[in-house]
Specification:
The protein has helices at residues 47-64, 85-95; strands spanning 2-5, 20-23, 26-29, 35-36, 41-42, 72-79, 104-109, 119-126. With 127 residues, the chain is an alpha+beta fold. The protein has one domain: 60s Ribosomal Protein L30, Chain: A, CATH 3.30.1330. It has a six-stranded mixed beta sheet, with helices on one face. Strands 4-5 form a two-stranded antiparallel ribbon. A hairpin with a 2-residue loop joins strand 2 (20-23) and strand 3 (26-29).
């Protein structure tokens, strides 16, 4: 059974997609950017602040689906400037500091992201 996951604690989708889809014990989360769900605007122009907000948004989505960060098995980070990798990585490491492991991860540099974002992060969770 496929279940759409939606929470107001993360920004609404900017297009024709769901925040996440749960299929059994798996959760597939769409990418989150650093939009503050309260203001519906990018949190800040700083990539570290945007990465932190994107991860907070992901946590909100996975928590409402009954998962937590210990269930993240794969993440993908999209960034518009590869030189921001170390800043994003520092935020990412802090997010997973209490986890028993780091998930498998890909990180890629791309030309642009929606809404002028500098970073987007997506995850897959498994129970």
């Amino acid at each position: 059974m496929i279940n759409k996951i939606q929470t107001s604690m993360a920004p609404d989708a900017l297009g024709a997609y769901s925040q996440a889809i749960r299929i059994g014990n798996s959760l597939y989360c769409s990418g989150q950017i650093g939009i503050d769900p309260a203001t519906k605007k990018l949190k800040n122009s700083d990539v570290s602040v945007q990465a932190e907000q994107a991860l907070k948004n992901l946590r909100a989505v996975i928590n409402v689906a009954g998962f937590d960060i210990q269930n993240i098995v794969k993440s993908t980070i999209f960034m518009i400037n590869i030189n921001d990798f170390s800043k994003i990585n520092e935020v990412y490491n802090n997010f997973f500091k209490d986890s028993n492991y780091y998930p498998a991860r890909s990180a890629v540099s791309i030309i642009a992201l929606p809404g002028g974002a500098k970073v987007e992060i997506e995850v897959i969770c498994q129970k």
